[in-house]
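As agreed, record minuted below.
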Amino acid sequence: MRIIITKDYDEMSRRAASIIFEQICNKPHFVLGLDVSDTVIGTYKELIKLNKEERLDFSRVVTFNLDEYLGLTSTHRYSCRYFMDTNLFNHINIDKRNIYFPNGLTKDPQILCQQYEKLIKEVAGIDLQVLGIGRNGHIGVNEPGSSLNSRTRIKTLPEETVQNITKVFEKPGDVPRFAITMGLGTIMEARMCMLLASGKRKTEVLVKAIEGPVSSSVPTSMLQLHPNAIIIADEEAAADLKQKNYYLYAEKMTQQLGCAQI
């Protein structure tokens, strides 16, 4: 794993965007996996800036999103698609035909999940998957206890999540209880995974994810087994890492040598 520790959230966002920028420049027909975590909004803003400056072309980029709420339209203000349109897609020159999302209104979720996996394979897999980290270590809707080999599937939303989003719905019966999410096994097949972590709330779980045992109780810990995983965390999130000094030194050496140490 390559661990990059930045001064603050803004620097974390710039570093993440610069890595994505470099990857797309090297391979214009790039397959990018995206997440709707609030942590990645700054990275999306940086990508928009790079696109507006005409340095980053999204016209041939293909995207796959991690998840979507079952039962929500793509225009619902709490849908994952709405989040992505608002924070990225509507501001860059991406071909909308190259945007792939689980359909929250599908009448056959099981078939949709199989088709989503098939679509990823048809484009030869995801080149880089962007990830946020939940306070309990979840990725997408892969909550603690999820199989590390899981595929795209339907997952029950945690009670806390349901309670948090209830306020944005006029009728309690309209609140989604399920989501379609990429599985952990699906995520691990990406050629590169990039996890972002920011703030004191992520300090404890980041230690477990990076330096603790690989366990389904902390789904993010699976990235320890990935051959090309990059963790970018600001100083607050990285404060309690036991090997923090080594990570800082290793990244300094990596930059001097101009190579990526994983």
Notes: The chain has one domain: 2-257.
